[in-house]
Amino acid sequence: MWRIGLAFILLVAGRQISAGIAPEAQNAVEPPKCYSCEGINCLRTTLQNMTASCTDKLDVCVTIFEDYAVSERGCLSQISLAGQAKCEAKDNQCLKCSGQLCNNKGRKDFKCIQCLGSESATCNKGATSSLTATQCGLPTSANSFCYVKVVGEHLQRGCSLTVKEQKSCLADKDCSLCSPEDSSDGVACNAFDLTVGSKSGASQGQQVMSLGLAVLGMLFLRFVN
């Protein structure tokens, strides 16, 4: 009888210990799960959440690129030999990470300034401020770009990751794209500035002109009278 009681106590204690372990610590003893895709499917927005489970606890998640476009994602041990070769060569076109579903970033050198001028005044002065570029998310387009955009009275800077975003920027006279390859000396390519408030400036000019004409009209009436 005492053996049954002891077994019950150990079972309860084991459950309490397990419940007290943080989820990330529990995940650490499980083989990782990675986002998975191959070829053109890596650029399809509807397939971005496909996953693959690794069989080895020591495996890692990877993203393989062709230039800046994603060509393959998955467990390192399960991707193509060409992809594994890029990782072995420590090529920028291979990005490895440890953890569950961690392979959701762009190339480690795909960095843009990401900020909102409405929240940070320095964002409106990219050319004269010390804004720091940060790694972008996973692109679903064949090309990766940074952008600067006029939004109201402020500038917005960030990563342009989808074809839809890139086409929208190209069609907007207040938006400009640049290639991360054009970054130099640690300065992101989207550190340049665009003219802010051009519409409001035109409105103010019209108001000044109207006021000037009104004054001239009053002087003319006085002169005539």
| CA-based shape | elongated
> What is the CA–CA distance across the termini?
120 Å
DSSP E strands, number = 12
Helical percent range?
Answer: 25-40%
- H-E string: HHEEEEEHEEEEEEHEH
> Which segments are poorly predicted (pLDDT under 50) over 5 or more consecutive residues?
1-26, 198-225
Query: Mind describing the biggest β-sheet?
Result: 4 strands, antiparallel
Number of helices: 5
Q: C-alpha Rg, in Å?
A: 28 Å
Beta-strand fraction estimate: 15-25%
Major beta sheet, strand line-up: 2-5-4-6
Structural class: alpha+beta
- The chain-level mean pLDDT equals 79
Count of folded domains:
2
Pfam family, one: DUF753
Domain DUF753: 33-103, 111-180
Protein name: DUF753 domain-containing protein
Keywords: Signal
Q: Can you summarize this structure?
A:
InterPro entries: DUF753 (IPR008472). The chain is an alpha+beta fold. The protein contains 5 helices and 12 strands.
List keywords for this structure.
disordered N terminus, 12 strands, 22% strand, 5 helices, single chain, 225 residues
Write a structural description.
It is built from 5 helices and 12 strands. Strand 10 (145-151) and strand 11 (154-160) form a beta hairpin. It folds into 2 domains: 27-104, CD59; 111-197. It is elongated, with a radius of gyration of 28 Å. The chain has helices spanning 2-20, 23-28, 81-88, 163-170, 198-224; strands at 33-35, 37-38, 51-53, 61-66, 69-75, 94-97, 111-112, 115-116, 134-135, 145-151, 154-160, 175-178. With 225 residues, the chain is α+β, with helices and mostly antiparallel strands. Keywords: Signal. This is DUF753 domain-containing protein. InterPro entries: DUF753 (IPR008472). Residues 1-19 form the signal peptide.
